Amino acid sequence: MAGSSDEICRGLGHERSCRLSNTTHTEVAPCLPLPSLPVFCGAPDRELRLFDEPSSSARSLDRPEIVAQASRIADLLRDTDISYLNLRGGVGPTPYICSEPLNLYTKVLQCNSDAFGYFIPGLVKEENCHDWVSEKNSFQQNVTIISHTQREYEEVIDHSNGNLTNETPSSVSSRKPKIKKKGSNDASFPKGPDSPELQDGIVGGFCEMLEDFCGRAETTNDDLDEGEGPSLPLADIKLLVNEIMSIRGKKILHLVPVDALVRLLNVLDRQIHQGQGLSIDENENSDSDIVSLVICALESTHASLAIMTHHDMPKQLYKEEIIERILDFSRHQIMESMLACDPSYRALHKPRENDIFDGDEDEEFDADVGPVGKRRRNFRSVKMKKSTGNKVTAAVYAIVQKLCTILGFMKDLLSIERLSDSCILQLVKTSFATFLADNIQLLQLKAINLICGVFASYEQHRNFLIDETFQLLWKLPFSKRAIRSYHLPDEEQRQIQMITALLIQLVQCSANLPKALGQTLDGNSILEVSVDANYPIKCHDAATEACCIFWTGVLQRFTAVKSQDVSELKVIMENLVMDLLTTLNLPEYPASALILEVLCVLLLQNAGLKSKDISARCMGIDLLGTVAARLKRDAVLRSSDKFWILLEVVGEHSDVSTNPRDVCSICLDGRGGKNLIVCQGCERCFHADCTGATGQEVLPRGWSCQLCLCKKQLTVLQSFCKSHCNVSASKNQTVTQSASEASDGITRLEVVQQMLLNYLQEAGSTDDGHLFARWFYLCLWYKDDPKAQEKFTYYIARLKSKAIVRDFGTISSLLTRESAKRISLALGQNNSFSRGFDKILYVLLASLRESSPVLRAKALRAVSVIVEADPEFLCEKNVQSAVEGRFCDSAISVREAALELVGRHIASHPDVGLKYFEKVAERIKDTGVSVRKRAIKIIRDMCTSNANFSESTNACIEIVSRVNDEETSIQDLVCKTFYEFWFEEPSGAQTQFAGDGSSVPLEVAKKTEQVVEVLRRMPNHQLLVTVIRRNLTLDFFPQSVKAVGINAVSLASVRRRCELMCKCLLERILQVDETINEEVEVRALPYVLALHAFCIVDPTLCAPASDPSQFVVTLQPYLKSQVDNRVVAQLLESIIFIIDVVLPLLRKPPTSVIEELEQDLKHMIVRHSFLTVVHACIRCLCSLSKIAGKGATLVEYLIQVFFKRLESLGADNKQQVGRSLFCLGLLVRYGNELMVTCDNHNLTALKSVSLLKNYLREEDFSIKVRSLQALGFVLIARPEYMLEKDIGKILEATLSSSSDARLKMQSLQNLYEYLLDTESQMETEHASNTVTHYPEETGQRVPVAAGAGDTNICGGIIQLYWSNILGRCLDANDQVRQSALKIVEVVLRQGLVHPITAVPYLIALETDPQEVNSKLAHHLLMNMNEKYPAFFESRLGDGLQMSFGFIQSLASFSVESSNQNKVPGNVKGKSDSSIFAHSRLGISRIYRLIRGNRVSRNKFMSSVVRKFDSGSSNQSFTPFLVYCTEILASLPFTLPDEPLYLIYTINRIIQVRAGALESEMKALCSRSLQGDATKISQENGVVQDMGALSICDSNHTEVAMMHAMNSIDSCGISREDLQKFQDACHAAIALQLLLKLKRHLKIVYNLNDARCQAFSPNEPLKSGETLSRQSIPFNINGTPISLPTTYKEMTEKYQDFKASLKEDTIDYSAYTANIKRKRPPPRSSRGGKSIRETGDDEEDDDDDGDWTSGSRRLSGGGQKSNGGRRTRQRL
Which H, E and C letters describe 960-1001, residue by residue? Predict the structure, then answer.
């Protein structure tokens, strides 16, 4: 057994040595199973060893057994490829120096004198045949680290020595342009076929060897059956294989007699039969006999296929049984190899130890097509076993390598012998199965070649192969999907999936290359190929059809799969597309573009964007976006590529003289110390290195560049085709003009195309992969060439140009791979796939308008991927229009995504930001918080990325407008943005100053100018004040920073910059004053306003420590201005304010300044016409008196002056009287603190009040308003006067609803200023609050309530007038409401009253059409709900009723102002539709506040529904119920629990009230009808017994009742009966409104009866439930709300109510928006068809029983059984 094992190991030595990864030739050489050659043969060791022996035991090279192999060594050296040595001309052979003469060297030279010679290979003739190849580089010892497997090296086994020689690699592994074998058809070393005598001798010797081999085999097995007996020795079979390959290599195998070959095949078939069904176990303890049998059978298979695949072999050799046995044995061994190499695959398909993997493997593989989940479960169990068997034996590797060789021969056999369909199908299934296992990448490569061979040779099986290809996608286990193990040629870091490589090669094979062109032909034979001129177009159509079949099957599978597997299949398709995009525009894979093009076409149709399946449409958008992005990226790369060859494609008519001189066309550099060579054709200059020539390679003088060489080649081809056409035409006596014209002129595009074809032909391997690629290119170009059919012969010649034009060019004329890729990319821009970008873009932009927000978001992401490839793409008009349209999308996520799309490219492309600025700025006011944030960030990036951004001022204005945003995070973002703009200290030293003598850095001066420019375009400085205040405190930093503590250095830095800005503003004011210009005030105003804003925040900024009085002294002269206009008034007001707040900070103000300032202020009080300036002057004058220590002397003097002036002025001088009243009131207000020390200060105040009371009695309205204003100033100084009765009456009168709007506004303004003044005093007194509030700061700010519980005089005053203030909150005048609401804000903030009293009014104000009022009311309600939720919820119902009264008053006011009359009986006539729209939005906002709390929202809905059961009979209450109904219908429900609870509450009301109310109305109708009808009948002389009506037919009864009613209508109705029925009718209208609301809810939210009945408010909420809402408006116009006045109307009301109850039994959830959007009109008794009316209760009960079913049945039999009340259980 040991000896047997040794023999097997020696037999497997070849396989062991070839288990290599991708290695270079020098790495391979030491590992080859060759004898180590001496140095003159290229060996690194001087000792020659035939076997792997240690060097210490090496023997002499002249041993007899070595010398005997001299002929074989000679043959080996003759066929040895030394191209990898990169030998150049001029390099001589290295002499061999040996210590002793070698007989071996002499013998080798005798056999072949050129054995040790070599030559420089060039571009020579194409090889004559495609020899058998077997892979040399296949595996490594550990299967888990196999890489680069398809970069294999091929080996040829020579008959003379049995060893291996290098040959050209296959197409999948071409790493660089290959160089032909030594001596192949070279003119210097001619190698022709052997002489006939020598051939006969070789064949004879081979026949003798066959005779001996067969004789020994037949002798051994004579007495045994087929398949029995001992196997031949492995060494003998391997020797036979070597001999067969040797004679095959000499191309004389077909000369061997047929009988000998048939006999040999029979012997080999017996050896194959002996190994059939056997397999090598995956463990190391395999039976050596089994291994020997399997290896012998594989070698026999190898030998048989080598014989069968030789050319011109007789048909007797192709026995069907032998071929089937070979296929069956090979399939079995492939399966066993898969099991042995992949442990996970073995665990899945061979779980039991004793299973025999025989002929049923197809069934096992078919079982793998099960559900995805099942395969994944199986794979989990595999992983646990994987670690137990991860080692693979050497024998398995040897078998796999031999199987690769066998698969290569099988591919050749397909084109020689037509196999049966069963054999083909079995072979294909086995080949596809190899993709299911790992660690056999080389075998998978051979399987790909085999499948492609079947695809090319057997057209009838193409659909089956394509079907199997996409079925393989689902068969692959989940863990093995997206494994990219196929290495692209010369793309070190780029791999694709094996199945993608298979798909690409199948499509390229489907181009149907003519068989004649696939063979080696000479030039004339090529042009004489009989092919139709339309054949290339048909080939292209066939490839397109193959792509359609594949993608159609994939997309159909996608739409048919279950929802849980959609994501997995989507990943599969995305991986396929990514692989195809990876190979796109690579020279070897032209089919990738066609495959992607067909996919895009299908996705644009019903399989994608037009599909009904939303997931298919989403996937289509994703894939189209990915493809379009790649097309855009390639287009950008192409447009920016300045490669000299590609310029030929662009400049078709450019002049050669425009080429730059003394500049290399490739690297575009000058000489740079390098020699420039000039092309003799185009006269372009090149560096020698750039052309690929080395320093030792001497270029000839007549050197031509690659472009010119290719052009010459095409010229020769064209001439050859033309001459061939002329010869053919002369033979046929026909010459066509078109043929001769077509041959004239070679376009530059054709030259570049041919360069790509030449690259593929030179760099390609010996297989037909690149031949198919070249043919595919030609078919593409042929289709796009309008004159192609006239040049068909020329296209065929271009395919085989090397066979026609031989020995063309030099080695330096080869294209580099990088150049070939750039050419392929450029040519790819001309194909139909690249031209389809516009169509894809159009569809994606159209998808932005889809109805589904999911699809719109997907389309937006797809467009964003394209923009990533080329941001300038956003500037295109159609793209800009589409993206800007999504800025206004209904979905917040889509709007945010659209902004994100633009925002990502603002910094890198400022021109994009400029185009989108206007639309982005609009989104700052968006309702979505995230959208507003993103818009602010985008605008910020626009400004920061471009220092010269033209819209920077507008950008700042837009951003600062959100500084008071309701979202605090946005407020912080705005302040942080301006911190970065203006207040952040820049990095680097500031050495440059703004101007001569200025101490302000230039950078600060620029920022200050920006602030002024922004302020110049703003209506006021309030927003700027907020920005400055928050930046001085840096309170917008994140909470994490605040928790640690804001850095004091940062605070000091901001303060320092603010001081510098103030100083810069002062300098600018002086500079403006120095200019000679009449509009000095106009130009100085923005700077003064900015300084005013800084002073409001912190006056110390204008009192620098170095010179505190600088600002006062500088600004004081401006008070002497004599100009009196609005601009100057605003300027003076700001200057006076600055002086007023800075003066108290001065320790010792200059006396001269004080005196001069006093005089200026007194003059302006008297002189200036603008009262705002007068106000500021009086306040500053009083402050100045306090600082100067002069007391109240000046104030008292001025008061007396105005007293005397008022006494002297008559009532006719209204303007002067009003001015004097205004000044008097201000002097009392601001001088009160100074006059406290005076004895007569009370007398002065009382006298002032008395005077103002007198002027309030004046008839002139302007004097009344002014005196009321002055009274307010006095009351601010003396608030105790407001508690007196006479003042109280005045205030109540001015705040009454009947008062004039101007008086109401002035009275409210007085209270508001009083509250602000009190608040300012309180904050000054409380040291804990360091923030000073000025009147200018107030706005719509809603700070946290402070001062709650204060019981000072302020609280008493407000409580005294609180009801009047609240009443003005609902005033018809907008400005009055706004003024009153501002007071409510301050009162609630200070906590002066109980907040519950304001809740109903605030709820009513939520419905205010004025946005400013509704927003402020909403803010106050939000704060109240957070602080006092119980108070808030308890007054919701009252607030709703008050809101109804409010909108009614607004509607009445609107009607009165427009002189329009109201429409009676219709609530829409009482409230304008726009007003109701505002009320609906307001109540919806309130509901959102409480929606998060289930108890709160249920309490709110219950309180509203209970109003329908209030029992009120007031007719004016009915419109309010209609209003409530519409409000409930418009609530923004988001959970199913909300509408279900509302329906539940409605059902409870209906259940309690409906039955009793129906009975009551029926009884009233019947009683009144009976009594009055009898009376009428007797009066007319007609006697009728109304009791008889009960037994009449129902139809007759109704007719009788209608006749009676018509008679009764003319008579009077008793007031008591009418009142009772009207009360019942009022209750019925309320229930009808509820029923209509209930029906609407069930339709809109698709709620069926079963769901409504199953609902219970006590059950916990179900997480994850969603609510879908249909867009169906709630129409309530058809509901009659008028009360009846006649018996006819009473009956109609009863019938209408009864019809409503009956309609309630319908399950309205079945209704849809498409079927029915409006409720049908209520059924009436007039037609006599719908309602049966009787005078008997029992008959009516029966009628009710017809429509009351299940849980809706009556709980009682009638009035008697339930005390006159009947209840119904309703849904």
Answer: HCCCCCCCHHHHHHHHHHHHHHHHCCCCCCCCCECCCCCCCE
